[in-house]
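Morning. Coffee machine broken again, so started the prediction first thing and wrote up yesterday's gels while waiting. Chain of 349 residues, entered below exactly as on the submission form.
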Amino acid sequence: MRDAVMQALKTVNDPELHRDLVSLGMIERAEVEGRVAHVKVNLTTPACPLKGKIEGDVRAAVLAVPGIEAVNVTFGAMVRPAAQPALPGVKHVLLVGSGKGGVGKSSVAVNLAASLARDGAQVGLMDADVYGPSVAHMLGQGTAKVTANAERKMQPIEAHGLRFLSMANLSPAGQALVWRGPMLHSAVQQFLKDAAWGELDYLIVDLPPGTGDVQLSLTQTVQVTGAVLVTTPQDVALIDAARALDMFRKASVPVLGVVENMSYFVAPDTGLTYDIFGRGGSRKLGNLPHLGEIPLDTEVRQDADAGLPTVLAHPESPAAQAMRQIARNLAGRISVQAMAHLPEQLPVV
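Came back before lunch.
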């Protein structure tokens, strides 16, 4: 009867990859005990955005097998690495950028990292905004200091289930860094290659605003899986976001999608929605995938000041729910890209 179950599973497609679960090697186990089938599906990311649909499709397909009366579906996850992994042990390097400051890029980067980690992924966060580092404060680790391990590599600081490095933890508080391009390049190199990141599914890099030296150093130093553009809806932000998009394309970095931050505001007293900055403007950025819209919410600012990502502090809030879905949409996009180079038929365990 197991063979019949496997044949049924060949009719179930991954909704994003458009191939069946068997040929993708996603069926880790398929067993039958009496009239009960036990199926374990290995997802391509712990943050799979369509896990519920896959479970429903598996149940329907297996229940159609004669003699099967119940299906027990469980899940595992294994993030497939990029065709050319960027760093030893790091499967994907993701850049979070914007054309200008003030659009909430760092807040989005921190919450994306925290959300992916909450879903079970191994996540690192690198604060590449050397002149204006804010990640450490947003994670409640502004006074922590980076140490070295036995191999004299920088040891990332751990907070909220992820590992991070920031210049804020290497320089005296409040001290301005007056560095030229070569020094910035050296700092980026050290953060990437002289740090003990360990085994990571995703290393998210919070870029500085603009299209300067740090962006150039990163794209020339490591193989980047892709970039996420963060913008607000108004035209003045979109103009600069378009420049950032052009930079990524010239550097041959795939843009995985755009996030529209501060997209709208829901009045807490009336529940009415106000498009303060003109909602939906980010859809003007070419044919980029739209990862999602985040509402303007005072809790996001309060949580950042308190050093706790909103997706952890207020997981049921509209802003947190939006960022959780954006993180899952992003993970899905990465899976599609990573699986594109695999053969048509993978071995079944």
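Residues 345-349 have pLDDT under 50 and may be disordered. Going to sketch it on the whiteboard this afternoon.
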